[in-house]
Structure formats: C-alpha cells, structure tokens
Amino acid sequence: MSNACGRARGRIVLATLAAALALVALHSLAQSQSANLTARQQFLIKLVAAAEERTHHTVRYDPAYVRIPYPGGDVPQDTGVCTDEVIRSYRALGIDLQKEVHEDMKKHFSVYPEQRRWLLSHTDTNIDHRRVPNLMVFFRRKGESLAVTENAGAYSPGDLVTWDLGGNVPHIGIVVDETSPEGGRHLIVHNIGQGPRREDVLFAWKITGHYRYYGPGL
C-alpha cells in the first residue's frame, strides 16, 4: 500500500510539474507574440509617417528607364513614379526594396511577370523593383496578402494598395491615418502624375491587390 501511494504521489508531482512547464511555455509564447505584434504596429506607424513626409517633396513624374547603383540606388530625387514613393518610404525605415526584390527574383524568377509581361529572361536591378506587377508578387510572397474588398474599414494605415487605372495600367499607393470627411475612408499617399500627394482615392479605380509588408526583419 505504501509503495502504491508513493507511486501515485510521484505521478501527481510529475503531472503538476508538466502543467507548470506548459503554462510557462504558453506565457513565454504569448509574450513573444505580443512583442512581435507591438514591433509590427510600431513599424506601420513609422511607415505611414515616412509616406506622409513624402508629400512635402516636389517630384516630377518621369517613367523613363534610368541606370542606378545597386544596392541603395534611386532615380534623381526630383523625379519618379508611383512605385518610387513606396520605395522611398520603405528606404526611410532602412529597407531597400531594390535589394529585397532583386534577391527574391534571382531565386524565383519564374514566379515574377518579367517573362510574360516584358519578355525578359533575366533580372534588372535598375527597374525590377520599380514595376508595380513585380512589387505585387513580392509583397504577396514576403508580406501579407489581404482581402480586396469594398469595405473601407478593411484598409488600415500602412497597408499597400494596387489598382488597375484602366487598360491594364497598374498603380500603387500607401494607406495613411487621415480619413475622408465623407465615408471615413483612409486617404492614400501616391504619385499619379502630380508628385506625391495625400488623396481620397481608395475606391477611385479597380483595386487589384491589398498587402502589408514589414520588411525582412519582422
């Protein structure tokens, strides 16, 4: 009887210890997830601020092909297109989309539309990251691909939105904090020809993509 009681107590002790260890592990995981969530939230706040800052720059819309250094290359600061506002906003946070896109394209060239859309057989660090269709693939692969919906509340500050302007002409912008007086839609920082501006254009064209990208570290 004594031995049986001892074994029973031992099993109870082991079960209690296992339960305690499981609780510690869950608590540690919850803390880690909470810290990661906070870091991502802080990142989006900084990205929105960087996008807003771009609206203070004078940029002449110029889609010309330009040879630029790699990595960290950029077209002249007073020129650019819609993608350059996204690129420059991320670069303000230390993330070089030229490098990130190029490195992924080198490894997975066939998933990008270079061959189908531009009939190219190799990467090009001068232009690849400046093409909306390439960014769409990259953000889908390396970030979060979110629902495309007519619900304005589904689009949050820091999100990236792509559109078809008509005739298969792509466009991209960044969702920011400020909302429209009518409808409460978040405004978009983008460059569609008049330089970087903050405008109520979320549903101005057909939305083709909705993404969230925190960079390679998060």
What can you see in these coordinates?
This protein has helices at residues 2-54, 82-91, 97-107, 114-118, 132-142; strands spanning 60-61, 79-80, 144-145, 160-164, 170-179, 186-190, 197-199, 206-212. It has 218 residues and is of the alpha+beta class. The chain has a single domain, classed as Alpha-Beta Complex (endopeptidase fold (from Nostoc punctiforme)), CATH 3.90.1720. The strands form two sheets. A six-stranded antiparallel beta sheet has the order 3-8-4-5-6-7. Strands 1-2 form a two-stranded parallel ribbon. A hairpin with a 6-residue loop joins strand 6 (186-190) and strand 7. Helix 1 crosses helix 2. It is globular and about 75 Å long. It starts with a helix and ends in a 6-residue tail after the last strand. The mean pLDDT is 89.
The low-confidence parts are: none
Q: Helicity level, as a percent range? A: 40-55%
The coarse silhouette is globular
Span between N and C termini?
57 Å
How many strand units?
A: 8
Q: At the fourth CATH level, what is the homologous superfamily?
A: endopeptidase domain like (from Nostoc punctiforme)
CATH topology group: endopeptidase fold (from Nostoc punctiforme)
CATH architecture: Alpha-Beta Complex
Task: Provide keyphrases for this structure.
5 helices; six-stranded antiparallel sheet; 17% strand; endopeptidase fold (from Nostoc punctiforme); globular; two-stranded parallel sheet; alpha+beta; 218 residues
